Amino acid sequence: MNLILPSPLFLSHALPRAIAAWRLAPARPRPATLGPVALALAADAIRELPQPQRQRIVCVSGVLWITQDWQCQDIVLMPGQSYTVPGRHRLLIQALESARLQIHAA
Fold first, then answer.
1. How do residues 63-94 score in pLDDT, each as one tens digit?
2. Residues near 99 by Cβ (< 8 Å), separated by ≥ 6?
3. Are the beta carbons of 14 and 8 closer than 8 angstroms?
4. This prediction's pTM
5. Are 99 and 59 in contact (CB under 8 A)?
6. What angle do CA 94, 97, 98 make, to 5 degrees?
7. What are the structural domains of the chain?
8. For residue 59, what are the contacts with CB-CB under 8 A and spacing of at least 6?
């Protein structure tokens, strides 16, 4: 099997054009920082967060039960309390009574 490489002559013409095109390209806009996501859960409703690492969950009203895969302890949040997720494993949030919560991005 033979490896075919472009000729040095081709590279000498193409490379400066590629660099010029890169310099003239418009800058990509940066993604906007998102605010917290507000959720309302009915009693016994469950919400799954697949990879919640470093997200902060704030209980606005009601009572929330939080459990995470590979964690030994569960968390119960009352109104005004918050919890910052330490791990990257799946997290489940269940409303023990109808509740409102906010999820703040990492």
1. 999 999 888 899 999 999 999 998 888 999 99
2. 40, 41, 59, 60, 61, 62, 63, 64
3. no
4. 0.66
5. yes
6. 90
7. 37-104 (2.60.120.10)
8. 77, 78, 79, 80, 81, 82, 99, 100, 101
